[in-house]
Amino acid sequence: MLAHLAQPAPLMIARHRAETPSPWKRKREETCGCFCVTRNTFGETFNSCVKQNIYLNLRTKVSALKVSPSLVALVSHSGDGDLLFACSGTIFECQHQDNSDEFIATILTSATLLTGRSPSSNADIAPNIQVDVYLWDGKTCQGEISACDIHFNLALIKIRSNQRLPTPIFKHLDDSMTLTLPRVLDSTSYELHSQQDMLQGSNSFKICAGDKVIALGRHYLSHELMAAPGVFRFGYCDLDCEQLCIASCKITMGGIGGPLINRHGEVIGINFYSELFTPFLPINAVSKCLENLKNHGRVHQPWLGVKASSLGSASVYKLEKIILKFPQISKGVLVEEVTSESPAAYAGIRPDDIIVQCGGKSVGSSLEFFGFMLDKVGEPVELDVRRPSDGTCLTPTVFAGDRCNRWPIPKERQMLFDTIHM
Fold it and tell me: Which H or E run contains 148?
């Protein structure tokens, strides 16, 4: 009998192992090529369920702490009191009211907070919505909806305070690069230099692929600060917005609407969610959207039907083809893809074309190009284009369409992402 107890049957051992979860595995993960995919919801923190976020170096912590006083958690409830969505946001403005001791702070966040529905539907702001705002010290405020643009997935929430609330430093991104080519093509060296003064002085932050960035969020239940380090990457996501950039940070849905910061603790974008990386809208585009809201009451949605990147991010294979035809070219925007029956296609633009000027102004990055087109929706804009395939120079005229972004979701993931908008 004692021998029987000391040596459990193999079937009993197998059943025990199957029923006992491993204490080391915090989250079910899947692989997709060389990537590791973690399934998350807004109820989970990305400090604990994403392995690379558990142990942060001191520099990452210091950068995150610079922004934490302006980082808030937001929770929306429907008219029936049901939880609609929970995400993060950043206080970007706090103004003193005349003849009053009161301050009004404006929070930048995601419009998902107000819709809580799939981007594939015609989402509207939920009726009788209530928004609770949790500050970094745990204090709760009642939020008021100030503005919302569903297509760029931006919302502004105002709160009232009896003291001035802290705001972070915001920086426009400058990802332009000037390619300085040698006079002799068989030279052994090429140089890449950051383009100077693309934006206004110190308002811009020059960034290159591989530069460290940090996605931040604040959990709606514990109110804890969440940080996910990563790097800035060139590339595209499957969300239908040409202004989006990507970072390798891994967050949960609770980080939607939170800030993306650089290594100095400056806010350079607003985060959204994808399984493999973090799409973010640069502050450049956010500023344009806020300007449109202020001046026109709505935000234009420019659509050209192109995927483009800065010339400096092109492969060495493509760069060689370019300089063989245009040895004097130094900067521009490389057209990667052109959607059929789009404004770009009707203008005769093709993949691998180089856009060097837009409306008579030189362009050195895709951010600069799309930022210019955001102000030209519905207007004819003449482009200066170089075509390496045959060595020709073109001046097509393009009309930037004004339409709604679709933000498509793979059908098999529709149920999982039913609360994501963007």
Answer: strand 140-149
* String of DSSP letters for 32-90: ETTEEEE---TTS-TTTSSGGGTS--HHHHHHHHHHGGGEEEEEEE-TTS-EEEEEEEE
Supply the pLDDT for residue 231: 93
pLDDT at 273 over 80: yes
CATH of residue 344: 2.30.42.10
Rounded to an integer, what distance in angstroms lies between the CA atom of residue 226 and that of residue 60?
11
**Greatest alpha-carbon span in the chain:** 92
Per-residue pLDDT of 193-212, as tens digits, reads 333 332 333 477 877 778 99
User: Same domain, yes or no, for 316 and 273?
Assistant: no
Give the CA angle between residues 350, 351, 356 to the nearest 5°. Answer: 80
- Count: domains in the chain: 2
* CB of 256 closer than 8 Å to CB of 112: yes
Q: How far apart are CA 90 and CA 167, in angstroms?
A: 8
Q: Which residue has the higher pLDDT, 422 or 336?
A: 336
The DSSP result for 166-178, as a single string, is P---B-EEE--EE
User: Tens digit of pLDDT for each residue in 292-343?
Assistant: 777 777 777 778 888 888 887 788 888 888 888 998 888 889 999 898 988 9
pLDDT of residue 327: 86
Domain assignment present for 243: yes
Residue 310 host element (H or E) = strand 306-310
Contact 184, 324 (CB under 8 A): no
Identify the pLDDT of residue 156: 94
Are 282 and 198 within 8 A, CB to CB?
A: no
Sign of CA dihedral 292, 293, 298, 301: positive
Tens digits of residue pLDDT in 207-223: 777 899 999 999 999 99
Instruction: Count the neighbouring beta carbons within 10 Å of the beta carbon of residue 345.
Output: 16
Residue 90 in domain: yes
Whether the pTM exceeds 0.90: the reply is no
| Separation CA 286–CA 296 (nearest Å) | 15
- Give domain status of residue 190, yes or no: no
